[in-house]
Amino acid sequence: MRGPENEAQPFTDEQIIGILKEREAGTPVSELRRKHGISDATFYKYKAKHGGMDVSEGQRPKDRWRSNIHRLRTGVNRAFRRRHEEIA
């Protein structure tokens, strides 16, 4: 039975890209699975999502997300201020 201390932690995008780079360098998938504690399905899911990416590209979705959150917050703040000014 697995306890919380034995649960596999999810990998960051950078770590996943590193695993895929190891495969591109010639390391067999079976060895990567054992080394990183992942299943076949997980490896191929990572490959489908992150295959061909560089570490710098792995950062881009986070940057895009932060940018969108900033736009959303400032847009909401502007709309709130406009409504507040109309009432006052």
Walk me through what this model shows.
- Helix content is 73%, strand content 0%.
- The protein has 88 residues and is mainly alpha-helical.
- The chain contains four helices and no strands.
- Helix 1 crosses helix 3 (40-50) and helix 1 (13-24) packs antiparallel against helix 4 (55-87).
- The protein has helices spanning 13-24, 29-36, 40-50, 55-87.
Instruction: Count all strands and give the number.
Output: 0
Head-to-tail CA distance between termini: 63 Å
What class would the helix/strand composition place it in? mainly alpha
- Uncertain segments: 1-6
Largest sheet composition:
none
Summed up, the helix count is: 4
Order of helices and strands, N to C? HHHH
Which percent range fits the helix content?
over 70%
Radius of gyration, in Å, reads: 21 Å
Keywords:
single chain, 88 residues, mainly alpha, disordered N terminus
Quick overview of this protein structure:
The protein has 88 residues and is mainly α. Helix content is 73%, strand content 0%. It is rod-shaped, with a radius of gyration of 21 Å.
